[in-house]
Design brief:
Blueprint (H helix, E strand, L loop, with lengths): L6 H26 L2 H10 L5 H19 L3 H20 L14 H16 L17
Helix pairs in contact: 1-3, 1-5, 2-3, 3-4, 4-5
Length: 138
């Protein structure tokens, strides 16, 4: 049974933690690897370099949408392709466990599960612009 008194706060905690993780991940690309360095890495694995810039913007916009609660269900779904991309281009070949060289795919897969759960459970408390798709009028 779902506790309807606390469930909105659980969704809020999930939304905030996922958003902060994406913001940190984008920050790593911006401040540590630099956008140019990230583009170089993308090129080194056979992806177009410009895709790095799109990825950084996608992560920042998605992170802010989750943190602020702006269409967060849709934002959660929109962020899944980024993680699938990391699994198929980098982490998948490294095996399952994330402590393998080049990191395995367990963490991105778990991150995807969290995004799917958020999309299913809803925006949670304190959302600035809750997603209205899939909700019946009362």
């Amino acid at each position: 049974m779902i506790d309807t008194r606390t469930a909105p706060y659980a969704a809020l905690l999930l939304r905030l933690s996922l958003g902060i993780l994406f913001l940190a991940h984008a920050g790593l690309k911006i401040f540590v690897f630099t956008p140019a360095g990230t583009a170089g890495f993308f090129s080194s694995i056979g992806l177009p370099g410009w895709l790095a810039y799109v990825t950084i913007v996608w992560e920042v916009v998605g992170a802010l949408a989750l943190i602020l609660g702006v269409w967060s269900r849709l934002a959660a779904l929109a962020l899944i392709p980024l993680l699938l991309g990391t699994i198929f281009t980098v982490h998948g070949a490294a095996g399952f466990f994330f402590n393998n060289p080049n990191g395995g795919w367990e963490f991105p897969a778990f991150w995807i599960v969290g995004l799917v759960v958020l999309a299913l459970v809803g925006d949670g408390a304190c959302a600035l612009k809750p997603a209205s798709f899939g909700q019946r009028a009362r």
